[in-house]
Amino acid sequence: MVVKVAINGYGTIGKRVADAVDAQDDMTIIGVTKTRPSFGCDLAVRKGYPLYCTYDEPDKIAAFAAAGYTCHGGLSDLLAIADIVIDCSPGKVGQDNKELYQAAGVKWIFQGGEKHAMTELSYTSSANHQENMNAEGTRVVSCNTTGLSRTLVPLYNHCGSLKVECTMIRRAADPGDSKKGPINAITPVLKVPSHHGPDVMTVRPEIEINSMAVAVPTTIMHCHSIVATLPDGHGLTTETVLELWSSQPRIIIMSGAETGITSTAEVMEFARDIGRKWGDLHEIFVWKDGVKLTGNTLYYFQAIHQESDVIPENIDAIRALMGIESDWKKSVEKTDSAISKYNGI
Ligand code: NAD
After folding, report:
1. Contact of 167 with 211, CB cutoff 8 Å
2. Ligand 1: residues whose CB is within 6 Å?
3. Looking at the whole model, is its pTM more than 0.70?
4. Are the C-beta atoms of 226 and 209 separated by less than 8 Å?
5. Does CATH place domain 143-304 in 3.40.47.10?
6. Arithmetic mean of pLDDT, 40-65
7. So what's the architecture of 3-141+310-341 in CATH?
8. Span 123-163, pLDDT tens digits
9. Ligand 1 centroid to 236 CA: how many Å?
């Protein structure tokens, strides 16, 4: 079976998910939507993805032809031929879209800008793939929550309990954004605790976690500063924590002192050097020399490429919802191996 996938919202996340789907042999892109003719339409045309309008109104569809694009119809036309829709619209428009998907009888996946309460189910590959098998719809959690899950879930699985405090040092805007800030400030998020940490509990409720967040003037990555309290008798050392993470998919561990990669700028340069499309890094980056376990307290930093760590998770989520693969590690292996063919050296 080849799953027919629609992308609703061909922006930062949507265009990346489309290419990741396109790389797989068990799913195919049958169309992507744009709200109006814009430069993103050119990319879809170059890739050969059929273009649809996000809306069904005839005048909005006609605007594409007037701008020189072949538009195959409105969202309803696309949903009529899809098995599943990946909603990559900006956050908080999800409820209305969800009703459209349910009326069309297609499965749906939302992104982290939507609330768990709206989807009633969330997803990360390592935390709860099984729980998502054959579900009607889900939400791939945000880039920060995905990053936290990658390193905390294996720790929790080893220890059997975990208490975590973390600070999200957040990029202010994506590189393609021209209207966001701050550009000359450090802005604490005054909603305390922030939603990021507790959001991990939507995929792994047993992890006790709280977070605070600060926005800083950078566009390239988030950085997490994490303090985890392990239970008595955890049996780990700094070295075996690193070994545990090394055995997990989608985590890169490097020494800042040995490589010279001591900041997010160099992490992103590394991603570009190895030929990653858009300079993306799907993996979470952990600095080996920033990890220390003292007694029961584990300290570490990790960097998150916000535009891309959730991309392979969307592919695994499709396999879970469509009931194709129940073993998360097999899905991850298949996803990453297909993506690596377009992903440089
Ligand atoms: P974006 O603004 O880059 O792209 C959104 C796209 O959706 C645009 O093309 C827009 O025209 C289109 N759109 C607008 N209204 C729509 C509607 N009602 N229905 C369908 N499409 C509509 O946004 P993004 O950064 O790609 O974010 C998409 C989702 O992914 C959000 O939930 C966001 O929180 C989440 N997310 C973003 C990032 C990131 O770093 N950008 C990381 C992880 C998750």
Report:
1. yes
2. 8-14, 35, 40, 54, 88-91, 93, 97, 111-114, 142-143, 174, 306-307, 310
3. yes
4. no
5. no
6. 97
7. 3-Layer(aba) Sandwich (3.40)
8. 999 999 999 999 999 999 999 999 999 999 999 999 999 99
9. 40
